[in-house]
Design a protein that fits this description.
Blueprint (H helix, E strand, L loop, with lengths): L4 H29 L4 H5 L10 H20 L13 H16 L14 E6 L2 E5 L2 H26 L6 H5 L8
Antiparallel strand pairs: 1-2
Amino acid sequence: MSFSMYQASIKPLTTGLNSLRSILLKAADYAREKNIDETVLLNSRLFPDMFPLSKQVQIACDMAKNGVSRLTEANLPSIDDTESTIEELVKRIDTTLGLLAGIDEARFAGSAERALSFNPAPNFSLSFPDGKTYLQGFVLPNFYFHVTTAYNLLRHNGLALGKGDFLGNFGGSMG
């Protein structure tokens, strides 16, 4: 059996979202232990022109959901960016994970070769010659950028995290 678009997308996106979920739960514990208002963490930025932590999580979820939606031509629901607590961001991740889990592998048939075009913003369009290019060159790099930035924001704010927190359960074994 060859490596499929389902395997190339659902597994890394699910692993990354689960890692992000775990990191956020650690951040909630950290905020309680250190008596830090969690909105300080949610609004933190590495530089003034960057999105805050909360937006990094929202975009990571959207990139996963919208990427799979476009590849499978599934009509997955949009999620409003209304989260204002870590608990609400964790729920958003859970919702996204549920949506990804509900996508049947058969929906990915032909997605590697199918061209994609969409308008992510008014007066702005993106086109990809095929789904493989879209997944490898756009979805996964953007997804990891936002997950990594969320990790870095929390690490910068003193949360003790390591590579294992980022990698999560990547399906390998060490020993």
